[in-house]
Structure formats: C-alpha cells, structure tokens
Design goal:
The chain is α+β, with helices and mostly antiparallel strands. The protein has 8 helices and 10 strands. The strands form 3 sheets. Strands 4-5-6-9-8-7 form a 6-stranded antiparallel beta sheet.
C-alpha cells in the first residue's frame, strides 16, 4: 500500500504530519482487525518504508503514536510486536492527546463512564496548592466510575472552582479531563502528575467488587494552561493489575 502524498500549498510540516497519520491509521486498522494479531511481529522499518512509500521518519512517528496508544511494544534486538489484550497501557506524553478512554479502547475494550455525583467541598491545603487558590475555597467535586467492557477499572475525581464550572458542565459526565478541557476551549500546555498507591478504601470496595485494602494505583494530575494557571485538578484510583502507566519525557 502506497500512501498518497498531499499536494498543494500546505507547509512541509503539514505534509509530514498527514503522511505519518495515514501510516498510523493503516497499521492501527490492521491491528484492531486482527490482521496483525496479539504478540505478532510487525514488518521491519525497511519493509514498512518500502510498502508505504514514505520516509523512515514518517514510519517512526507512526510507530511512536501506536506505542503511545499501547498497541505495540519494541523489544531490543527482536523488533516491534503487537501487545496482547487485557492490560491497558496509559501513556503521559507531551505530544500525545490520548485520553484514558482512548487507552482503554486501544487495549481492545469498550470504555464506559458511570457518573456518580457532583458535590461541593472546601479546598484543603493540598487541593489549594494544586489549584493555586486559598485553603477553604469552595470547590466543585465530580466523581465517575470508568469501565473496560463491563469491569470497573478506575475511579475519577475532578476538582474545580465555581468560576469555570459552567464551561465544563456539558462534557464532564461523559468524557475525560483533557478532552473536557479541549471541548471547553482551554489550551493545555502540560500537566503535573504524581503517582502513588493505596489500599482500596472500604467506601469504594463494593464499586470494584474487591475487599477493602486491595492494592490500587493512584495518580494526581493537574493540567496547566498556556498562561500557567491550572483550570482543574484531579485524582484517579485505578486497578494496578489492569493498567500500565508510562511517562514519556523529552530530552
């Protein structure tokens, strides 16, 4: 299959972007359709360059995108392989806009959100620090449970001020933090993430059909806007046996 190269006055960068996205889309289709089954080895870089008729740079960018999505993994000296299903690969990367819902979908499961409730709380010292507000500020707290197929895999909390609540209201119950912000027109330039673990609190044990104390993963995340202000902060409690988290750090 040869990728049709764009014509016209588009910039060189735009042309390159279109090429790697087309390669990524075709490889993704082959993986999700089963043409490249789990644990199978992808063609070599040379073979993909020859097949698609694009540069090695475009193929590498396409493979990196699929790696971000958790579809493939490289093994030193052996090549690139399709990942087996069951583990949800979540990548935090500067140049990836994938949501946790996308990660669940790319792992071969259907993501589903169950909205739990929205209430108001006073910001404790930690939330005040994350949101750059005064301790005691009234915040909105939104909770939702996320499923992969029919299995609950993560519990999400979002905290935000009343000032931006109207902008988030339309999407907050049916999408994920970064997608919600994008839909609301916020330009996110980065995020601060802190990873940890905890025993499943008793109040949430029934949600996950596990005993209190079951080992869970924990991530606190705070998106940062272009202006340097965090629009919200969040916390996700996730099944550590269902997720692999990866952080991509540019050098």
């Amino acid at each position: 299959m040869t990728i049709s190269k764009p014509k016209g006055k588009a910039s060189l960068e735009t042309k390159k972007a279109l090429l790697y996205l087309e390669v990524a889309a075709e490889l993704r289709s082959r993986i999700t359709s089963g043409r490249y089954p789990p644990n199978s080895k992808l063609p070599t870089l040379y073979d993909l360059v020859q097949e698609f008729g694009v540069s090695a740079i475009s193929v590498r960018r396409a493979l990196r995108e699929l790696s971000y999505e958790g579809l493939i993994v490289g093994e030193q000296g052996r090549g690139i392989f399709v990942k087996p299903k069951s583990v949800i690969h979540r990548v935090f990367a500067v140049d990836s806009a994938q949501s946790i819902g996308d990660s669940i979908r790319h792992a071969g499961f259907m993501p589903r959100i169950q909205e739990l409730k929205t209430d108001r709380i006073k910001a404790d010292a930690d939330l005040a620090r994350r949101l750059q507000v005064t301790a005691g500020t009234r915040l909105n707290r939104h909770q939702k449970l996320v499923f992969a197929d029919n299995a609950p895999v993560s519990l999400h909390f979002l905290y935000f001020t009343e000032e931006i609540a109207p902008k988030l209201r339309q999407e907050i119950g049916k999408s994920f933090a970064f997608s919600i912000l994008k839909h609301a027109g916020f330009l996110v330039r980065g995020a601060h993430c802190e990873f940890g673990s905890l025993g499943l609190p008793g109040e949430y044990a029934q949600m996950f059909a596990e005993m209190p104390g079951f080992p869970m993963g924990l991530v606190h995340f705070t998106p940062v806007l272009k202006e340097g202000k965090p629009p919200l902060t969040g916390m996700t409690i996730f099944r550590s046996d269902r997720f692999v988290f990866e952080v991509d750090v540019p050098i």
